[in-house]
Write a structure and sequence with these properties.
Structural class: alpha+beta
Largest sheet: 3 strands, antiparallel
Strand order of the largest sheet: 1-3-2
Number of strands: 3
Strand content: 25-35%
Helix content: 10-25%
Shape: flat
Distance between the termini: 46 Å
Length: 132
């Protein structure tokens, strides 16, 4: 089983306008930096850029091949599972099951695994706001 998951996004084709930047190279670099930083905030690591052929329609019945520039990102699946396990509003989400396929015997996971998630009709305790 793969330890990583991958995401492929189209590379920017135009430089966006940025205050204080003049010239296409500087604006394009800033556009690319913004995209890379947005992906990093979501937990994705930049891996590489590739140019790949893509078949597309031309006219009514024609087809042609055009190169597409893409950026490839990856992240560790284990880190992603930890991030998605924390539900909104500080509520803990149930841990993913690593037991046998459905219909098989249930694994002995201990008392912590049998705890139920918080009930929606009971609010969670607020964090302690006192300065220590």
């Amino acid at each position: 089983m793969s330890r990583f998951e991958y995401k492929v996004v189209p590379a920017p084709t135009r430089a966006e306008r940025h205050r204080g930047l003049k010239g296409t190279p500087e604006r394009f670099a800033q556009t690319l930096s913004a995209l890379l930083n947005d992906m990093a905030r979501e937990g994705w690591d930049y891996l590489r850029a590739d140019t790949l052929p893509c078949e597309q329609r031309q006219g009514l019945t024609g087809r042609g091949t055009r190169d597409q520039n893409v950026l490839i990102f990856r992240r560790d699946r284990i880190a992603d599972e930890v991030q998605t396990a924390a539900a909104p509003e500080g509520r803990a989400a149930p841990a993913p099951s690593s037991g046998p396929a459905p219909g098989g015997p249930a694994p002995n996971l201990g008392p912590a695994a049998r705890d139920l998630p918080p009930r929606p009709d009971r609010p969670l305790a607020a964090p302690d706001d006192r300065d220590g």
